[in-house]
Design goal:
Length: 56
């Protein structure tokens, strides 16, 4: 997966999280699940960025 593709997934998940939170509130288990998925994507992005820095 490219850095650009990962960024697109992050933005999509962020928009979904905001939408779900507006429907169910921030303490909903569904919102927490979406938040964890977004965290995972952000961590992947961070690892991707760190890996690129370390190899150059």
């Amino acid at each position: 997966m490219s850095k650009q593709e990962l960024m697109i997934l992050i933005e999509k998940k962020r928009a979904e999280l905001i939408h779900i939170a507006s429907l169910y509130g921030f303490s909903s288990s569904t919102v927490i699940q979406y938040s964890q998925e977004l965290d995972h994507l952000l961590n992947e992005y961070d690892r991707f960025s760190t890996k690129k820095v370390l190899t150059h």
